[in-house]
Amino acid sequence: MNQTPARNTKVMNRFDLTSRLVAKLKNEEAVIGGIGNTNFDLWAAGHRPQNFYMLGSMGLAFPIALGVALAQPNRRVFALEGDGSLLMQLGCLSTIATLKPKNLTMVVMDNGIYQITGAQPTPAASATDLMAVAIGCGLTRSTWAADEDDFERLIDQSLTSSEPMLIGVRIDDKPGTGTTRRDPVQIRERFMNGLGVREVL
Fold first, then answer.
1. CA neighbor of 25 nearest in space, from 59, 48, 53, 9
2. Strands 104-110 and 165-170, sheet pairing
3. For 56, which DSSP code?
4. pTM of this prediction?
5. Is the four-CA dihedral 84, 90, 93, 99 of positive or negative sign?
6. pLDDT tens-digit profile of 158-176?
7. Which of 79, 132, 127 lies closest to 103, judged by CA?
8. Is there a contact between 172 and 111 (Cβ–Cβ < 8 Å)?
9. pLDDT tens-place string over residues 37-62
10. Taking a C-beta distance cutoff of 8 angstroms, is the pair 148, 170 a contact?
């Protein structure tokens, strides 16, 4: 029995995958970046007013994206999260499966470590298959991307999906590219303006 999840998938690079995703966004899709390297790479891949950058709240990228998807059902919403952060909030998968927002796509970047705090191994490194967990929660469109081409194919599918999708990608341990400007008020105001729910003062 395979004790380690997704070992048939290629180890990819987070910044490269994030750049591939951002390049496909043509209709002001919202993107929620999880804490740390996930949002550093989102910032560096191409800053957009529809990007929201998490600061310090581990595991909340998927729940925040759920709220945005429910509030704006005609807008495609993407969430980028690390494996350690998702493990902090696994219950959100059941909630998302129950509410079934058709416009939500989640990407979990799994390098098997808590990278920011010292590269301690996560349970996803050896025991927990996050796609199997998600499927068990009711997110039937959950799958590991085999390589970069497969990741792009899955993103293309998600842009017209009628149910939530979760894409798992195995990534290397390279640090994030760039650093998000850490101004919570500015991040919030810019994002709300980008979604058309607040005027710029």
1. 48
2. parallel
3. S
4. 0.91
5. negative
6. 999 999 999 999 998 887 7
7. 79
8. yes
9. 899 999 999 889 999 998 878 899 99
10. no
In which element (H, E) is residue 104 found? strand 104-110
- CB count within 10 Å of CB 35 equals 22
Show the tokens assigned to 56.
Answer: 């310090």
Q: What is the mean pLDDT of the chain?
A: 89
Is pLDDT of 198 > 70? yes
**Planar angle of CA 184, 187, 189, nearest 5 degrees:** 105
Residues 6 or more apart whose Cβ sits within 8 Å of residue 109: 14, 17, 38, 80, 81, 82, 83, 169, 171
- Return the residue matching tokens 């025991």: 127
102-124 pLDDT, tens digit per residue, is 999 999 998 876 666 666 777 77
Cα–Cα separations (whole angstroms), residue 7 to 26, 31, 90, 106, 184: 33, 28, 22, 20, 38
User: Residue 68 is encoded by which pair of tokens?
Assistant: 């945005």
Alpha helices per DSSP H over the chain:
14-23, 37-45, 61-71, 83-88, 91-99, 130-137, 148-158, 184-194
Block residue for tokens 């191994």: 121
